[in-house]
Amino acid sequence: MAKIYGLYDKSRNSSQLKKLLEEMYASFEFGEHEVLISNGLALGRIRIKTANTKGISQSKGVICCFSGKLFDFYNDAKLLERKGYKFDLNNESEYILNAYLNQGLDFLIKLNGTFVFFIYDKKKDAIYIVNDRCGIRPIYYYSDNKKLVFASEIKSVIKDSKISREIDWDFWKDFFSYGYSLGNKTPFKHIKSLPNASILTYIKGDCSIRKYWDYNNIKINNSRSIEKTINEGSRVLRNVFQRQTRGLKRCMVMLSGGYDSRCIASSIKNFTAVDIHSFTISKSYSKPRSPEGDMDARYAKKIAEVLDIQYTIIGNIDELYSKYFTEQVKQLDGLCPEHIWFYPMMEKIDDELINFDGIAADTLMKPGYFLKSEIHRNDDLSNEEKLMSYSDEKITEMLHRKMLKLSSTDYRAVIPFFNKNIAIKLMADTKNVYSEIKLLNNYNNKIKIFQLKNRTRNTTPLIPNNIILRKTFSLMPFCDNEFIEFALSIPVDMKVRDEVYKKILQKTFPEVMKIPTTNDPKSFKEHVKQRLVSSNQDWIRYSLGDISKLLKIIRKEHKEQITSVHLSQNPRDIQYLIKLAKNTKFPDMINKKLLLKQLEYHEKNDIDPTYFLEPILYFSVWYKLFANKKV
């Protein structure tokens, strides 16, 4: 994994730029780095060992810094070389620089990969920051009429003490409601993330963003039969994995019991000569039993045996939260509650191997929780004909309700502990969902595109600032242009009624698909039993200012329903969170006295308090680490 960071500020001298660049680098806490400082520009790139090429290049008054992977790099580089451009054919940064010299930014329309890059054109005194079609590689930025500060992690951006750390409560409203934030918001009001397929342009203090590609450009193919779709899907998978494994000898695959990881492992095994090392995380840490007791681990072991590939099952440990809770908030900038059970695995894997991750395949190919679930078969969101007749307002309301149900955090259990003025800002509403929906004009793919634009993987954030991408050089094969265009061209009813993804995999990998999957209806039911099954909209009808009444309802009337939602099952983890709460100095906007009273009530009645305690502590740890600075 390579990351970029830097700033453009002509009011600072070279020594000031160098000092801030060093502070930004230190915030990453890993990897080797290269830097460039020139005439108000300070630029850095940090990388792990796997990303072994230099990422900063310059020629003819243009400076380029690249992070990521170009899937069609070899062929594209050869084409550019034939036009007379001379550069290192193994260096993607030099390719981007020369492609810009050749075409300006017009070369972007066909660029295939997961990437973010920076270009400074000295002649125009213009900066361009560009990301890939899916926005997989994050970039965060702050701009005003004097400076632009940017980095792959927010903690690096806020090293500039001149940047305001005002909290964006709209972000936290989304976070507590859905488990992730919509759009390009971050926890800080004045720091944004670059939307997918975008070009950020900064010229003479003016910052603007424009799209160079959009999901809505892909048309539904209603004339293609199910048989032709299955055959094409098999062909596309072969193309994708042969393209992305060029020159690769060994790789790593996180193997679970679902469709996506078995598709990746099977494709690499069948279509390439790459040696696979698969890892499986067993999430059975709440009880002292063997790692194989976990459903994912049982199925993954069978998959590895059928494919005859190396596999390692990594069990979780006791006291997981005491070791990693604060660390995950720090590493992820508070952006999302990453699966904490990833952390023990990251200490054992070979971080020099390239990792293939199944991000986006489920959103693109499977019906998904929003379109269909085995429990809610008559859901209107799975009916394409009805969906096309609905207004944006109706789609928004249906999505909002389902997103609340699927979230592992319930805002109703969290906001009573904030003071009244803040609690009002955190009450869930449909505003943020609607602002995203109204931008989409393709009704057939409206919900799919909504998920992709908001980086959601069902209910798990697709924010690639996670622990796996921090420690490994990861590829997201399903974010390949060919695969995206194929997947979004499939009619919704073919995904729902005909289960086309399953049939593509059955045709392509019949032996592996005989193994049970966590995507089966019974497995799905077992999974959702642990989630909030119903979201009573009566809650929202109460006065926004009546927080004490809301708390009373949470504590008494809906105790059973809400306490079923918690992120920890290990008694030692629960005790750690309780102890942390008692010893934490909470921000002024949180009522610690009320929180401790609720903890006492839950302990006395032997009720797990983590359904409200964990998100409150998550926010409080984030606040202490990042926001509690006087500027």
Q: Estimate the mean pLDDT confidence.
A: 83
Helix content: 40-55%
Query: Can you identify the CATH superfamily of the largest domain?
Result: HUPs
Q: Which spans of ≥5 residues are poorly predicted at pLDDT below 50?
A: 285-289, 371-379, 456-465, 524-546, 554-568
Residues in β-strands, percent: 15-25%
Description:
The protein is of the alpha+beta class and 631 residues long. The chain folds into three domains: 212 residues, Aminohydrolase, N-terminal nucleophile (Ntn) domain (Glutamine Phosphoribosylpyrophosphate, subunit 1, domain 1); 312 residues, 3-Layer(aba) Sandwich (Rossmann fold), CATH 3.40.50; 81 residues, no CATH class. Helices cover 42% and strands 16% of the residues. The strands form four sheets. The chain has a six-stranded antiparallel sheet with strand order 2-3-1-9-8-10. A six-stranded antiparallel sheet has the order 4-5-6-7-11-12, covered by helices on one side. It starts with a strand and ends with a helix.
List keywords for this structure.
631 residues, alpha+beta, Glutamine Phosphoribosylpyrophosphate, subunit 1, domain 1, Rossmann fold, 3 domains, six-stranded antiparallel sheet, 42% helix, 16% strand, globular
Topology:
Elements (H helix, E strand, L loop, with lengths): L1 E7 L5 H13 L5 E7 L2 E7 L8 E4 L2 E9 L2 H10 L9 H12 L9 E9 L4 E6 L8 E4 L4 E4 L2 H4 L11 H10 L13 E2 L4 E6 L2 E6 L14 H19 L5 E5 L4 H13 L3 E8 L12 H13 L2 E6 L4 H12 L10 H5 L7 E3 L4 H5 L2 H4 L12 H6 L2 H15 L4 H4 L5 H7 L4 H7 L8 H8 L2 E2 L2 E2 L5 H5 L1 E3 L5 H8 L3 H5 L3 H9 L12 H8 L9 H4 L5 H9 L3 H5 L7 H13 L8 H13 L5 H18 L4
Parallel strand pairs: 13-14, 13-16, 14-15, 16-19
Antiparallel strand pairs: 1-3, 1-9, 2-3, 4-5, 5-6, 6-7, 7-11, 8-9, 8-10, 11-12, 17-18
Helix pairs in contact: 6-7, 6-20, 6-22, 7-8, 9-29, 27-29
